[in-house]
């Protein structure tokens, strides 16, 4: 194996050895739960499970419908209700987000592939060319009928006022009036072009770190399988997921990601830098 062991110490030693130059990240909702944004599938608190008040109130046929393009076309109200609650600007990046920027500042970040739509990777200051938002984000929006982009300032105001106004944004092109939707990848929609680069990045990585995802949504989840044997895989999550544990160089660290990241940075001698970025 590439690693001396299957623990935090081994990862730290590998990063410090200088042999680990390209680190690729795969992120999911667990990275942002400490920021106050619920994930999707954690028992009791996930948006899709348990009785999280937000979704129960939306009267959906089933929870995932809130992110389904066909359902949205017939009823966009649940999506905009949720968008009002989850809109970027209301949340602060976590220590784990600070770690992404730290990797980038140490010239170790190859690429950060995130499933999250909260834009907290950008907010913490990770350079844009190091982030691929595989499931899109709230950063842009367009008409689902004619594709015309819709003004960002205007939709922001509408989303933030949605809880009282209940006005759904509609296309302003003459005679269109199509529904406007953020460029979030809904079930049944294609992933952004930039996602196509993912296999290349992962094949050329020295380390793959997967954080806070159940690895249940494909094609994103399958990326973890592409890592070659020369690329150890690290999982930082509350539960074991995917095929982690099947390979010699798999490292599984089951705990809250902010805690694991803090411990890792302590080993690396990066703790002060980490906290400095986080406190900015
Ligand atoms: P999930 O909710 O499916 O999984 C989140 C994972 O993070 C779970 O395995 C949790 O145990 C773990 N987790 C939660 N809090 C954590 C913490 N503080 N530290 C470490 N781990 C923690 O979320 P995703 O895998 O991101 O799509 O879901 C994938 C996609 O499903 C999302 O991108 C979303 C959804 O449909 C869209 O919105 C388009």
UniProtKB/TrEMBL annotation:
Q: For NAD(+), which residues are the binding ones?
A: 29-33, 39-41, 115-118, 213-214, 237-239, 257
The protein's annotated catalytic reaction(s) are: N(6)-acetyl-L-lysyl-[protein] + NAD(+) + H2O = 2''-O-acetyl-ADP-D-ribose + nicotinamide + L-lysyl-[protein]
Alphabetical GO CC annotations of the entry are: mitochondrion; nucleus
Provide the E.C. number(s) assigned to this enzyme.
2.3.1.286
Report the cofactor remark.
Answer: Binds 1 zinc ion per subunit.
Q: Which branch of life, at top level?
A: Eukaryota
- Predominant location of this chain? mitochondrion
Q: Which GO terms describe its molecular function?
A: histone deacetylase activity, NAD-dependent; NAD+ binding; zinc ion binding
Location of the Deacetylase sirtuin-type domain: 1-271
Cofactor needs: Zn(2+)
Q: Which UniProt keywords apply?
A: Metal-binding, Mitochondrion, NAD, Transferase, Zinc
**Residues the record lists as binding Zn(2+):** 143, 146, 171, 176
Subcellular compartments: Mitochondrion
Active-site residues annotated for this sequence:
135 (proton acceptor)
Family membership: Belongs to the sirtuin family. Class I subfamily.
Identification of the protein by name: NAD-dependent protein deacetylase
Record organism: Gymnopus androsaceus JB14
The organism's taxonomic lineage, starting at the top: Eukaryota, Fungi, Dikarya, Basidiomycota, Agaricomycotina
**Shown part of the complete sequence:** 3 to 282 of 406
